[in-house]
C-alpha cells in the first residue's frame, strides 16, 4: 500500500490522519508547532489529495484496511496518532486493533445514533454538491467574510476568522474527492465504531462543544466504546479544533502523546 505523505520536524514520530474530503494540508494550522518537537507525518488517505483511490476506498472499512496496511509497510506500527473527524475514527480503529501508540481523536465520526445518521447525511450531501457547483468561484467567495461564514458555518465556530486561502483550498479538496458521496453513505448507514482500545498508551478524545456535524452528545457514546479514554472538551470550537482553537489543540496533542512508550 502506497500513500502520499509529508514529513516535517525532528523527534518522536507523530502521524496525522485527516478527515473526509481533506488532505494532509488540513493540519497546516498546527503542524508547524507540532514539528518543533515531533517528526510530523501527515498522510493523504486513499482517494484524497495525491493518493489514488482503491476499489474499497469509498468505505470506512476500506480506508481502515489501507491505513493498517500502510502502517505495516512503513514500519509505523505503534506510532502515536492524531486524527480529525473521519481520521479520528480511523485512529480509534487502529487503537482498537492494537496498531497505535498514544491516540488523540478530534471529533470522531462513527458515533451517530437514530436521527443523527439522517442529519449527518442530509446536511453534508447537499453541502458537497454546493461546493462542487461553486468550485470555480470558491476563492472569491471565501475571500468574503459573509461567503466564508455561510459555507463553513456547520464546520467552524469562527468561520469568519479562518484564513480565506486555507478555506478555499479545503473546500476545493472536498469538491475534488470522488469518493466523498460513497463514504457519506457508508458512514451514515454503517455500524457504530466499536472499542475498546488495545493499547496501554493514552487515548484522548477531543470534542468541540459547538460541533454541528458530529454533535456533542455523541461524545458520551464514544467514551462508552473507549472507557479507557480521557475526554477533552474544546469549549469554543466547532468540528475542527485545530482550526478554531489551534494552540489548545497542540497542547492537548502533545500532552496526550508525550508519555507514550510507543515508537
Mean pLDDT: 96
Number of beta strands: 7
Q: Report the C-alpha radius of gyration, rounded.
A: 17 Å
Strand content: 5-15%
* Main beta-sheet annotation: 7 strands, mixed
Oligomerization status of the protein chains: single chain
Distance between the termini: 21 Å
Number of helices: 11
Inertia-based shape: globular
Uncertain segments are 259-263
* Helix-strand string: EEHEHEHEHHHHHEHEHH
Strand order of the largest sheet: 1-3-2-4-5-6-7
Helix content: 40-55%
Give the helix/strand class.
alpha/beta
Secondary structure topology:
Layout: E1 5-8, E2 13-17, H1 31-34, E3 39-43, H2 60-73, E4 80-84, H3 86-96, E5 103-106, H4 115-133, H5 138-142, H6 145-152, H7 164-176, H8 180-189, E6 203-208, H9 218-225, E7 230-234, H10 241-244, H11 246-257
Parallel strand pairs: 2-3, 2-4, 4-5, 5-6, 6-7
Antiparallel strand pairs: 1-3
Structure description:
- There is one protein chain.
- The protein has helices at 31-34, 60-73, 86-96, 115-133, 138-142, 145-152, 164-176, 180-189, 218-225, 241-244, 246-257; strands spanning 5-8, 13-17, 39-43, 80-84, 103-106, 203-208, 230-234.
- The chain is of the alpha/beta class and 263 residues long.
- One of its GO terms (molecular function) is hydrolase activity.
- It comes from Aurantiacibacter gilvus.
- This is Alpha/beta hydrolase.
- Keywords: Hydrolase.
Amino acid at each position: 500500500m502506497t500513500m502520499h505523505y509529508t514529513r516535517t520536524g525532528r523527534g518522536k514520530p507523530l502521524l496525522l490522519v485527516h478527515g473526509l474530503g481533506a488532505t494532509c494540508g488540513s493540519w497546516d494550522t498546527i503542524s508547524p508547532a507540532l514539528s518543533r518537537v515531533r517528526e510530523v507525518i501527515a498522510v493523504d488517505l486513499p482517494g484524497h489529495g495525491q493518493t489514488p483511490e482503491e476499489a474499497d476506498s469509498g468505505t470506512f472499512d476500506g480506508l481502515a484496511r489501507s491505513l493498517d496496511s500502510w502502517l505495516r509497510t512503513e514500519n509505523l506500527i505503534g506510532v502515536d496518532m492524531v486524527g480529525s473527524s473521519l481520521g479520528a475514527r480511523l485512529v480509534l480503529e487502529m487503537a482498537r486493533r492494537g496498531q497505535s501508540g498514544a491516540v488523540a481523536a478530534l471529533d470522531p465520526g462513527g458515533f451517530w445514533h437514530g436521527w443523527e445518521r439522517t442529519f449527518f447525511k442530509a446536511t453534508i450531501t447537499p453541502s458537497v454538491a454546493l461546493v462542487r457547483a461553486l468550485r470555480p468561484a470558491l476563492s472569491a467567495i471565501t475571500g468574503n467574510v459573509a461567503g466564508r461564514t455561510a459555507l463553513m458555518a456547520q464546520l467552524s465556530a469562527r468561520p469568519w476568522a479562518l484564513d480565506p486561502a486555507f478555506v478555499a483550498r479545503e473546500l476545493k479538496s472536498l469538491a475534488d474527492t470522488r469518493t466523498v458521496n460513497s463514504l457519506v453513505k457508508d458512514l451514515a448507514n454503517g455500524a457504530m465504531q466499536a472499542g475498546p482500545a488495545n493499547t496501554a498508551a493514552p487515548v484522548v478524545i477531543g470534542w468541540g462543544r459547538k460541533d454541528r456535524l458530529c454533535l456533542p452528545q455523541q461524545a458520551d457514546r464514544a467514551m462508552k466504546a473507549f472507557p479507557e479514554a480521557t475526554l477533552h472538551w474544546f469549549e469554543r470550537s466547532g468540528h475542527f479544533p485545530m482550526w478554531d482553537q489551534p494552540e489548545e489543540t497542540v497542547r492537548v496533542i502533545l500532552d496526550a502523546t508525550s508519555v507514550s512508550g510507543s515508537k
